[in-house]
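REQUEST ID: PR-0412
SUBMITTED BY: lab tech R.K.
PRIORITY: routine
TASK: structure prediction, single protein chain
INPUT:
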Amino acid sequence: MRIEPRMSGESARDYAYRLLKDNIISLDLKPGSLVSENLLTKELGISRTPVREALMDLERAKVVEIIPQYGSRISLIDYSVIDQAQFCRLSVEKEIVRLLVNLPEGTSFKELEENLSLQEFYQTHFNPSKLMEMDNEFHHQMFRLAGKELCYEWLFKGMMVNFDRVRSISFSVVKNNTTVREHAQLLQALKTHDGEKAESLITYHLSRYKQDKPEVLKLDPSYFKN
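STATUS: complete
OUTPUT:
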């Protein structure tokens, strides 16, 4: 498990949640593996209560199973859960796209353009973790530009963790990943106020995990729930 420093002003519970979530998404905490509250308490340097609370939060997100009198286990990746998470995300992001294509003429898309340049760099130099980070930030910036940043925080706080585990694998194992090209096409549609094309692109973009599934499953079939 990768341990990072606690951020300034970050509560112990949020710190435990962030580290556990990030390690689950990156598969440093592998699906099916056991985690110990006592060991996590020592590794993070915090008390047991915030660790337990973070595990309970992650249980609600369907990525941890708390087994009474035994401990906690990282849940297997369940595509039925991912499908529901993707349904929620796509429903919201379609509305974000509709807001963005109707922004006034002259609206700056500079931050999205700069982000896209970084995506191209990390794709060329094959850095899957940074590419996924830039992917997340690209969508985060779309929510900011639409004036719906709180919606992003609520959406990505819990339900997207399962979806992000699959995305993390995809960036590493899927050949000819088209994420950057899809973002470039989406940005162009937003800038030209082409609502129909933008909605079609975001639907394809957020549904591509289904096409990637055969390659993702090859990583380790034991990581996935039948």
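NOTES: Residues 79-220 form a domain with the Four Helix Bundle (Hemerythrin (Met), subunit A) fold (CATH 1.20.120).
REVIEWED BY: pending
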